Structure formats: C-alpha cells, structure tokens
Amino acid sequence: VFSRALFRSPVPAAVVPASVAAPPAPPAADRGAALPYGGRVLLTLAGAIVVFVGIWFARGILAPAAIAAVVVIIAAPVRGPLERRGWPRWLATTAVITVSWLILAFLAALLLIAVSQFASMLPSYFPQFTAALGDLLVWIESLGIAAPSLNEIVGYLDPATIATFASDIVGGVAGLAAAAFFIFAYAIFMAADASRFAHRSSPFETPRAAAIGRRYFTGVRRYYVVNATFGAIVAVLDGIVLAIVGIPVPVVWAILAFVTNFIPNIGFVIGLIPPVVFAFLVGGWPLALVVTAVYCVINVVLQVLVQPKFVSDAVGLGLTLTFFSVVFWTLVIGPVGSILSIPLTLLLRAVLLEPDPQARAMRRLWGDPEADEPHSGSVSARAAVESASSAGSADDAPRPDRDGG
C-alpha cells in the first residue's frame, strides 16, 4: 500500500469519481478491535513485565521513595488543622516534615535496639544452639535422610567466616544509612510538593479522579494506623509474656512482633519462629509449646477477630491476592516490599482499574468496594463534588498563597 501510494501519480480530489472515493475511516473502537483479545492480553502482559523488570533494577531508588511516600501520606493530615488556624503554608509543611521524620526516627531506633540486643545475646546461647542442632541432625538421619555433619555446619562459624559476616554487616549498615538518607530527603521533597499540589487545581483532575485519590490516601492511612495500633498492643502483650516465662531478650521479639504485624498473612509466622526457637533452647519442647500457644491466642484474638473489622473497609483485598502481593512485591523491590505490598497493590488498583467503568469484573476481583454498585462512577463523582463543596477552605480546595512561596 505504501509503495503504490508513493509511486502512483496523484489524482486531484476534485476529479476523483464518487464511485472510487475512499471509504470513511472506521471508528476508533473498530480499529482497536482489529487486534484479537488474546493479542491485547499478551501485549499488556509483555508491557507489564518490562515495567516490573525496570522497577526491579531501580529498586534501590524506588524502595526508599515508596517508604517516604507512605510516611508522608500518614503525616499529611497534620497540615489541615494548622492551616485552618491561620498557620502559613511553609510552617504547616514543616510540621508535616517533622512528623514524618519522627516516624522514621522511631522506626530506626526500634531497629537499632533490636539488632544491638540480639547481637549481644547471641554468643551466650551458641553452645545450646549447637547441641540442639546436633540432636536435630541425628533425628533427620534416623529418618533415612542424608544430612550434613555437625562439624561441617559448625565449620561455617569459624573466625574467618565470622569476620566475613561482620564485614558484610558493616556494608549492610552503610547501605541502610544511604537508604535512610534518601528516605529523609524524599520525605522533605514529597511534603513540599504535596503542599503545592493541594493549593493548586490541576486541569487533569476530575471529580472521579479526586474521589479515587482521596479514597486511596484514606485507605493507606487507615491501614497503617490500625496496623501500628494493634501491632503495638500485640508487641506489648507478647513481650510481657515472654519476660514472665524467661525467654531471653523479650524486647527484641516484641519489636519483631510489631514489625511483622505490617506483613499480611505470613507476618505472624515470621514473628513466631525466632522466640519459639530460643524457648526451645532455654526450656525444651514444653516451653516452646507454651510460647506457641500464647502467640496463637494473642494474635488470633487481635489480628484475626478484631483488627479486620477496622481495616477491611480500607483494604478490601482477598486473602489470595494479599498473599500474592506480598510475594510479588518482595521479589520486585526486596524485603521492604512485604511491608509496602498493600499500598502498592491498592495503587495499581486505583490507577489501572478504578477509573475504567468497563473493568467492573476485574475491580470486583481486586476488592474494589464500588465495583458492585450499579453507577460507581457517578457515585464517586457525586461524593467528590459534595466533599469539595462542603469543605470550602479545607485541604483539598485551592487556596491563594499566604506566604508567597
């Protein structure tokens, strides 16, 4: 077609007979339908793979940015009451940055306390660990399963190996320090940009988009606040029980229980294994079973029966999708992906599915609370308009600059 059009003599439009005139161009929907459904699915999957591979290569930059974004979302409500009381915009932004830094400093302090206490305690329990490991290897060999000898395993703990491990830890601490610097810097810039965007209307913002964004930010904020509250309760109860029964460094395991509460589905198992192992080293199987029973009772009552009533409306993801998101985001951006899996999955749903009224089946699969409503788009638009009209001078409405910045 291109060669014929290129080498054919042009015919004036005025003398072209009506019988040979070019047919009208098909509608855009017909042109898009030329590609089969399977081809569109494969093309979409190929593009998604390319995007996620790029995220994996840039995970060292994107993971700190994601952490900072979540922290700024949590601290953002500080701005509204201050500005309504007449505070200048730059001072309200400074308050958001301060709260964000306090949250990050608190998490860093918990991590340092746990690592330091665990490192100081571990050498004193090395003989018990070696003896328990020897008994485990004997039991494995009695089952007819080939197992490495105890000397081979202990050989990995010679001074040279320990020195190498220590150097790796130093390198890891340096990497954590660099990541912490980026997180704190991202928090400053994101808080400043959030203030600027909140006071300027965007030509691309629609009532539907405003409702989706507002619901996403509210859901992420509620998810982390509820998890932090129940995680603190679980950590305190676990720490008290572990201290009573004589488990070493109960503060470490309490901090671990608090952190793993942010990992859906499998966080309880991750937080349970280390204290059970040390309970076995201290008091054998009876104490290990006691610790397991206490953890199960506390976590089942709080995390399974009570906590979902506060956070289910904010998340709305099924168990299968939640577990898959933990595994997927851990592979994409590293261990921090297990903690950020829920907000990242909700972000994909908000950006890719919720704006599309034809993706109702997929939105229902992803737990969109409006997917079952007959007019979800109009509902969101009406909610956004009513919220914007009633807010007046609230946070989301554009305001003139009071400080000139």
TrEMBL record:
Subcellular location(s): the record lists: Cell membrane
The keyword Ligase belongs to this UniProt entry's keyword annotation:
no
Q: How does it sit in the membrane?
A: Multi-pass membrane protein
| Region annotated Disordered, chain positions | 365-405
List the transmembrane segments: 37-56, 61-78, 90-115, 169-192, 224-245, 251-273, 285-306, 326-352
A Pfam match is AI-2E_transport
Q: Where is the composition biased (Basic and acidic residues)?
A: 396-405
- NAD listed as a keyword: no
Query: What spans are recorded as compositionally biased (Low complexity)?
Result: 376-395
Where it mainly occurs, coarsely classed, is membrane
GO CC, sorted alphabetically, is: plasma membrane
Q: Which UniProt keywords apply?
A: Cell membrane, Membrane, Transmembrane, Transmembrane helix, Transport
Q: Which family does it belong to?
A: Belongs to the autoinducer-2 exporter (AI-2E) (TC 2.A.86) family.
Q: What is this protein called?
A: AI-2E family transporter
Give the organism, scientific name. Agromyces seonyuensis
What taxonomic classification does the UniProt entry list for its organism? Bacteria, Bacillati, Actinomycetota, Actinomycetes, Micrococcales
